């Protein structure tokens, strides 16, 4: 799935809001250069909020006596930089950072051998805080952590090697608005979620727009927790989605239920296995209740990891009339397009600034099959 966390590239959380527009313009120019050989239309550019756009963050902890600091590392010098605020982080993260750490440091059971704190927040103000330790945790830790939950109105998780202690739950519920409609998503601690909620809303809106008017059924590879699946289910008769992660499949099923999505079938399998199933090369028990022949599979959405599509998946994708490709790596996208544009034409191109102040580019491409020439 797309948009792997890029927090390390944020230069210790520094922002330069006055430079944001020029930095984004540089990304647009770079994308146009990378895509030039494919003669795409001008990219649609979706800007981020210049500050407080990240819904999640993780910080290493540096101890000095009975005190501690959040630290990040400068990408150029590897210099350790202490943080009291994180301008790219959500307002909720910034509200919690210092008061929470001060409360942790007041209690030796909470402070001892703590090496990292992670925050997962939502646009509606929910927050989940994970405390990571180089020691095993016990009931005494739970008793010490419980007042933090009450004081700050957050869920607390303690993690150590092969150990995870919950005070209540390990998830939050995010709300995203797309074309005036609200979608609710279960987001689990330590699982992938899109970090920039505002840009995620724009990506979902774009994907919904480019598939409006598509007929038949949708195949979605790498569907994750159903982020795109829920919204795009409105545009298709049925959706057949695949995802290899068991926890992501579980979250997706919760999200389908929360959003009253009833026309999606999800199968826990890889793109390679799905190709084998379509080609009738293998039978899978996971598809025993799915009649693949009954689907009118005309559109495919792919949202692959940074490595992009392997050759077998490229060949699978080329079988569809319409391709929607969401990419977190423009270099592997460029490589995949060398193959995909042999059979398909780029109709629309989009740049989503998921990670401002970094070189990261999130890209969307709509491709349609070229007419067959005699």
Structure write-up:
One of its GO terms (cellular component) is cytosol. It comes from Parendozoicomonas haliclonae. InterPro entries: MeTrfase_TrmA_AS, MeTrfase_TrmA_CS, SAM-dependent_MTases_sf, TrmA_MeTrfase, U5_MeTrfase_fam. The active site is at 328, 328 (nucleophile), 362 (proton acceptor). The protein is α/β, with parallel strands linked by helices. It folds into 2 domains: 7-51 and 193-369, Vaccinia Virus protein VP39 (Rossmann fold, 3-Layer(aba) Sandwich), CATH 3.40.50.150; 56-172, OB fold (Dihydrolipoamide Acetyltransferase, E2P) (Beta Barrel). Helix content is 29%, strand content 28%. It contains 10 helices and 17 strands. It has helices spanning 20-35, 91-105, 108-111, 139-152, 197-211, 227-232, 246-258, 271-278, 311-317, 330-340; strands at residues 44-46, 56-64, 67-73, 80-83, 114-121, 127-133, 155-160, 163-166, 171-178, 181-188, 217-221, 239-242, 264-267, 297-302, 322-327, 344-352, 362-369. The protein has an 8-stranded mixed beta sheet, with helices on both faces. It has a 7-stranded mixed beta sheet with strand order 4-3-2-5-6-7-8, covered by helices on one side. Strand 12, helix 7 (246-258) and strand 13 form a beta-alpha-beta unit. The longest helix is centred in the N-terminal third of the chain and has 16 residues, at 20-35. The protein is globular, with a radius of gyration of 22 Å. The relative contact order is 0.14. Residues 6-13 have low confidence and may be disordered.
